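During the no-cost extension, the postdoctoral fellow (Dr. R.K.) reprocessed legacy sequence entries with the updated structure-token encoder. One reprocessed record is reproduced below for audit purposes.
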Amino acid sequence: MKKQFCTILNGLKSPRNVGMIVRSHVAHGGGELVITGLDQPWQFKKSSRAFSRKLENKCHILHIPDQYDTLKWCAENSYRTVAVEIRECPIFLDQFSFPERSAIIVGNEAHGLDAGFMDQCDHVVTIKQAGDVGSLNVAVSASTAMYEFNRHRPC
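Re-encoded structure tokens follow.
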């Protein structure tokens, strides 16, 4: 089976972040892009497109309002869920082996992913940081996880 991933954006609000993640998702060969945790589908307007370079037209975007329904969708589509979040006693991203079919999940810019949701994910990974910054930008985190997934993907 060929390694592949989808990207799940849980409750993101920033057009810049969504646009940059779409761009990375397409650049890294992602499958579906799922937007969850929002009542309405994401509207790709000028502010998002300035960062996505209109690449949202090159990916299959799904809107699943409820984050827990998204976990069910992942299971039904044989994706193993990999949440990217800061956590105590972490599994660091650079030491993690991605499953063949991975759903890379990132959370809201202000509050990330809630603990109850993460507890239902198959894996939670943390990106090592050496500096005095509390956390990385969500688009940077998503792109880093996509890169790490691809780094181990056969050509």
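The helical segments are 15-27, 46-52, 67-76, 115-119, 138-151. The radius of gyration is 14 Å. The remaining legacy entries will be reprocessed before the final report is submitted.
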